[in-house]
What we know:
Shape: globular
Structural class: alpha+beta
Number of helices: 11
Order of helices and strands: EHEHEEEHHHHHEEHEEEEEEEHHH
CATH architecture of the largest domain: 2-Layer Sandwich
Keywords: FAD, Flavoprotein, Oxidoreductase
Number of strands: 14
Strand order of the largest sheet: 4-5-10-6-7
Radius of gyration: 19 Å
CATH topology of the largest domain: Uridine Diphospho-n-acetylenolpyruvylglucosamine Reductase, domain 3
Largest sheet: 5 strands, antiparallel
Distance between the termini: 54 Å
Domain FAD-binding PCMH-type: 1-171
Pfam family, one: FAD_binding_5
GO molecular function, one term: FAD binding
Bound molecules: flavin-adenine dinucleotide
Protein name: Xanthine dehydrogenase family protein subunit M
Helix content: 25-40%
Amino acid sequence: MRYAEPETVEEGLALLAAHDDARCLAGGASLVAMMNAGRVAPGMLVSLHRIPELSDITETGDGLWLGAMCTHRGVAAEPRLRGAMAVVRSAAGQLAHPAIRNMATLGGSVCLADPHTELPAALVAASARAEVAGPGGRRLVPVESLLVDGFRTSLQRGELVTRVFIPRGTDGAVGHHLRFSRVSSDYPTVSLSLVLVMDGDTCRQARVVVGASGPVPLHVDAADQRLVGTRLEEADVAEAGRLLVRAATPLDDVRGSAEYRRMLIPRLLGRALSQAREHAHV
Ligand SMILES: Cc1cc2nc3c(=O)[nH]c(=O)nc-3n(C[C@H](O)[C@H](O)[C@H](O)COP(=O)(O)OP(=O)(O)OC[C@H]3O[C@@H](n4cnc5c(N)ncnc54)[C@H](O)[C@@H]3O)c2cc1C
């Protein structure tokens, strides 16, 4: 296996183009574990650690750009991720345990596309877009459409993710993330990320995304719409929960049966909505 440490995105792209079996190395938390288990064997590892622009954080009038190499710890500590954007900060601060949060990166989370993880779901809730660089230049892709299946993205050969844009969202929006796991540092059995806008007691906007309940983060427009215009009474939340459960395709695994996961979804939704409402009124 060969190993390279490019210092610019262009050098990295040239290496990816020159080696059919090249892979980017970000935090390495998952890739190195998969290599150790013999599940992947890249011929060329392209480390992204020495490319300064991949760790940049830039604020614009309408949101925040986070470099692909920002670690979860860095994202969790970013004070500018407020309002709707706080859903990403909240997920990054809760996931896994400190060793993983110190090591693993935002770009690695998106590109791994592991259905058991929660950060991709939080990014979809935030309507985040990824900047993808490749031989043809750079393009912006909604994270929701980058994640096409479990462990599969729409990235083409020779492309890499350079940064992720988190839009500021509507004034007064609240972003919130909740996870249910067997123990605090485990992968979640189910996670739920949401962005909520309240007008007094009435819900003006809702975007709910469930993680670990299908091959990609689960977002159901009809469930969002069922909440909008209501006072988030028990019946409204229960019906939105039913719509999410109907669309979910969870797995049976050591973290819970599919049936158990279906039972958790409406409960997490109810809890996340009431916690988000409390933040909305602060
Ligand atoms: C023990 C453990 C527990 C975890 N628990 C959780 C959890 O509870 N919740 C959660 O959400 N996540 C969890 N994760 C996943 C973690 O958050 C990251 O998603 C994961 O480790 C990948 O990030 P990384 O930076 O380590 O990427 P790597 O392991 O370096 O890379 C992962 C894949 O993405 C590709 N890649 C990386 N960066 C780029 C890029 N910029 N462009 C193109 N391709 C790229 C690599 O080539 C590789 O295929 C856990 C991971 C581990 C190992």
